[in-house]
Write a structure and sequence with these properties.
The structure is a single chain. This protein is mostly helical. Helix content is 54%, strand content 0%.
């Protein structure tokens, strides 16, 4: 009967809890704060990205609007012809590959 008393003594009490209820609640609140801070920083980063994109795109969109119209009586000039210089002739040519050149320089026997 001593063995049974020993087993009852060892298994009778449950082990102490690693975390208390207050610790669990504090961890949950900390996780909520971190999640909200993450959403806020992601929203701020998105807002900055939209602002930078707006600063870069708006000048290009409004650049074409600053053109002043020609006066009503102004005549349009005839389109001139472009004067292109004559191109220089080719100073090189393409040739085929000379297979016998390799055989002459190599010390191996070339196929006939």
């Amino acid at each position: 009967m001593q063995l049974r008393d020993l087993v009852d003594t060892v298994t009778g009490d449950e082990p102490p809890m690693a975390r208390t209820v207050d610790d669990i609640i504090a961890l949950g609140r900390r996780a909520v704060r971190r999640r909200r801070a993450g959403f806020a920083s992601a929203g701020a980063a998105g807002l900055v990205a939209v602002a930078v994109a707006g600063v870069l795109v708006l000048p290009t969109l409004s650049a074409g609007r600053n053109i002043t119209p020609a006066p009503a009586g102004a005549a349009t000039s005839a389109p001139g012809q472009a004067a292109w210089p004559d191109p220089e002739p080719f100073h090189f040519t393409f040739t085929g590959y000379d297979a016998t050149r390799r055989c002459r320089s190599a010390r191996t026997q070339c196929p006939a």
